[in-house]
Amino acid sequence: MRKQKFCLTITTLVLVFLYLPILMLVISSFNDSRFGGLWSGFTLKWYERLWNEKNMWQAVTNSLIVAISATCVSTVLGTTAAFALHRYKSPMQKIHYSLIYTPLVIPDILMGISLLLFFVALNLHLSLFTVFIAHTTFCLTYVTMVMLSKLQHFDFSVVEAAQDLGADSWVVFRRVLLPLLAPGILAGALLAFTLSLDDFVITFFVAGQGATTLPIYVYSMIKFGSTPIINALSAVILIITFITVCITQSLTKE
Amino acid sequence: MSIRKTFLDEFLLTIPSFTWLFVFFLIPTLIIFGYAFKPYDIYGGITEGWTLDTIKSLANPNYFLMIWRTLWLSSLTTLISVALALPIGYQLACTSKKLRQILLLLIVVPFWSSFLIRIFAWKTLLHPEGAFKQFLVWAHIVNADTSLLYNSGAVLLVMVYTYLPFAVFPIYAAASKFNFQLLEAAMDLGATRSRAFFHVLVPGIKKGIFTAVVMVFIPAIGAYVIPDLVGGSNSEMIGNKIAQRTFVERNLPQASALSALLALSVLIPMAGLSYLTSRSKQLESVARNKE
Amino acid sequence: MSDSVVFEGISKKFGNAQALQDISFAIKKGEFFSLLGPSGCGKTTLLRILAGFEKPDAGRLYLDGQDITDLPPNKRPINTIFQNYALFPHLTIWENIAFGLRVAKRSQKEITAEVEKMLYLIQMTEHAYKKPEQISGGQKQRVAIARALVNHPQVLLLDEPLAALDLKLRQKMLIELDLIHDNVGITFVFVTHDQTEAMAVSDRMAVLHKARLEQIGTPMEIYESPKSSFVADFIGDTNFLDGTVSEMVQKEYSLLTLVNFPNVLCFNDKQLSVGDLVHLSIRPEKIHISKERPQKHPLHNIFEADVDDVIYKGDHTSFGVWVGGHKIWVNQQHSRFLLDEKPIRWKDHVWIWWHADDGYMLERYKNPMEDIEEMASSADITRNP
């Protein structure tokens, strides 16, 4: 099984490669020294300072506001789009599909700058609202793709069965489609939420003053700040991500 | 519902998402192309009238170097990522269910954690006064004054780090659908293990490989944050230039022109490829009908 | 019995393919009626038109005298058992059965009473709170039946309900369906491609072929008096022989001159005259086979034959024997313990005979293989003028 051993070796090396920097970061968040080089003692002071950092909390709040609103709108739009694409195969849908699919294959920075120019042309003041619009736009694509795949695996004979038993369109939607599609819709919403929270490039282009989201805050800290608060923040985010992923994985397992 | 598919129903269902994307995606994209033809206003923004000067300024030889570097770094990133993703994807598809879930989880977690933080992690790790550098100096692998950071090497390393999961997932997805008995059949017919790997497995998952290439290359050529944070002045990529023109110099027409160039270099190959795939599908169905 | 369902001139096209062409017939109230035919003949389309999931391009549909052609499926007093059962995966068995009653906004008391009654009828009371994925195929089918019948529809449609079950289970469920039909008394419309099933339970059957209605009648009528060669071939097995009528023997019988076969005497119910082209159909079970020469009889067709195939099927053996240039299939029932009979073996020289009344004259039937051969040979002609 030489091939197997080889693949296993590569996989392990890559996993080490993936985790080494992250682990180093977590470790140095407990390092008393200001500079990453030397270990000068275990401390929790960076975490304390992080907790008291008002700007950080503001950024978190902003991120959550945008993420929740963008998720809601993009989930609704994305679900209707997926239904349209699945049910109808007209030329209109071909164009519709291109509109939905293209954002997936262009780099983030293009979407960022195009929206910036759009807002500038409309003389629209850059704010959390413009961020919301940008986030909804790219989340829409992802939600649609997730829902489309769920719809393709959906057995529509239960819809006919419900009609056969006397249900009109509204009852079919409420009692059959919604409950059966809820996991898919939730998956799409979760994806949108995560992408929105994590987005930097697009947000950077369209956010105005006072519309700092968490990624923008992190970026400015990386670029201009040098306190190890950033290590503590990173460690916290990493742990939250890890827990969330574990929970989601175990939920989707059943 | 299956018999009352009226045009009105389709229209109503399509309109919400269609309108949103038309207004907030299509029109902005067109604006990029439009602004590329507008003259530059010193105070930022654009002025009246149209001009070809901006486009002409793209012919600057400095731009060529930057564009070449962008393409080169992106291609190399793609190559390395896909090359690493192949054994990983194969490994994942081969292992037992339990181990596979653990491995997938391990690969997914860094993928979902903040992209900025992961870049920052490398920035810290490669820091000139960092522990890692000291370790390398001690082991005589590098000199005390070589810089691990702020060069193209660092950019390449971090790009591979960031985009590798994008390559692993499609290849794993394709490998999990692959019928591994084909490899056994090949070996039964006399092929060596590596011949079977390259002549049977790789063609069998070429759709996944193709997706992996696209999923790495596209974000790579538009990379902005990575060269910004870990790259130096001699590892600038198109993304940096666009950001610089937009925020530092406020030269929106130039930024648009560069963006338009980037957009075209992505959209044209994609359009060409989708045309080719639909043509080959057409030919396939014609051939099948003839049988 | 009055008419329950009436199809009048129903036609339906999908793209370029004609699924149904001018179908007109009636189903009587309380009948167990089967729609039978090969794949693609249109029977499922007809069922779906009756259920309301497809709209006909032309024609009208009546239920108990009312025109329901334009009525949507949820307003028709008709319920369907789907081929894959289409049970709601997110609801328990209990809720699945209750679905139609809930939609009709019946009171909780009524719903509980009806559902419990149904559960008892299908013997699934102890499984009531399970989900569909936790029960077997046969059980799913019973739940599907209960879910439909609890609404007391006027007509129950069954779309190949036994297709997903194995042989023994199929036989068992078929009998159950028959019993349920007797109990409940409503009209059943059963779609299947399995003729044995259809004949076993139907009061009447309709045979469809290439979008048209070939024949309608009781199972016995269809089996014993097929009106077309397609029906004779599709239902049961038969031997076909071609020829012409050469002379009339006593008004009721004709002597047939056949291709590659000795002359045959046949009952002339079709009022054919000398010179007419015929397609003779004689079923294998109507032919007798023996190693001893049978006694001569004016109405018996007796021939010498050579055994080429012996296929043992348990309750009977099928023999393929050559008479002249034709291979004839003969089924011999084993009415005594096999070892008591003198076995007929391969390459034996035997005698076969049948009564002139048992042969059947039909119009010349083209089977699909001939169509292809014809097209192939005409293509050759154009290439080699």
Task: Itemize the secondary structure elements and their pairings.
The complex is a heterotrimer of chains A (254), B (291) and C (385).
Chain A: H1 2-28, H2 45-51, H3 54-87, H4 91-105, H5 108-121, H6 128-152, H7 157-164, H8 169-198, H9 201-206, H10 214-224, H11 229-253
Helix pairs in contact in A: 1-11, 2-11, 3-6, 3-8, 3-10, 4-6, 6-8, 7-8
Chain B: H1 7-35, H2 53-57, H3 61-94, H4 97-112, H5 115-125, H6 131-138, H7 152-177, H8 181-188, H9 193-204, H10 206-221, H11 225-230, H12 238-248, H13 252-290
Chain C: E1 3-14, E2 17-28, E3 32-36, H1 43-51, E4 58-63, E5 66-67, E6 78-81, H2 93-103, H3 108-121, H4 137-149, E7 155-159, H5 167-184, E8 187-192, H6 195-201, E9 204-209, E10 212-217, H7 219-224, H8 229-234, E11 239-249, E12 253-258, E13 261-267, E14 277-282, E15 288-290, E16 300-312, E17 316-323, E18 326-333, E19 349-355, E20 360-362, H9 368-383
Parallel strand pairs in C: 3-8, 3-9, 6-7, 7-8
Antiparallel strand pairs in C: 1-2, 1-4, 4-5, 9-10, 11-12, 11-14, 12-13, 14-20, 15-19, 16-17, 16-19, 17-18
Helix pairs in contact in C: 2-3, 2-4, 3-4
In short:
The complex is a heterotrimer of chains A (254), B (291) and C (385). Chain A is an all-alpha fold and 254 residues long.
Description:
- The complex is a heterotrimer of chains A (254), B (291) and C (385).
- Chain A is an all-alpha fold.
- Chain A is built from 11 helices and no strands.
- Chain A folds into 2 domains: 43 residues; 200 residues, MetI-like (MetI-like fold).
- In chain A, helix 1 packs across helix 11, helix 2 crosses helix 11 and helix 3 crosses helix 10.
- The mean pLDDT of chain A is 86.
- In chain B, helix 1 crosses helix 13, helix 3 runs parallel beside helix 7 and helix 7 runs antiparallel to helix 10.
- With 291 residues, chain B is mostly helical.
- Chain B is built from 13 helices and no strands.
- Chain B is globular and about 70 Å long.
- Helix content of chain B is 76%, strand content 0%.
- Chain C has 2 domains: 229 residues, Rossmann fold (3-Layer(aba) Sandwich); 132 residues, RNA polymerase II/Efflux pump adaptor protein, barrel-sandwich hybrid domain (OB fold (Dihydrolipoamide Acetyltransferase, E2P)), CATH 2.40.50.
- Chain C is built from 9 helices and 20 strands.
- The longest helix of chain C has 18 residues.
- The radius of gyration of chain C is 26 Å and the shape is elongated.
- The termini of chain C are far apart.
- Chains in contact: A-B, A-C, B-C.
- Chains A and B meet through helix 1, helix 3, helix 4, helix 5 and helix 6 of A and helix 1, helix 3, helix 4, helix 5 and helix 6 of B.
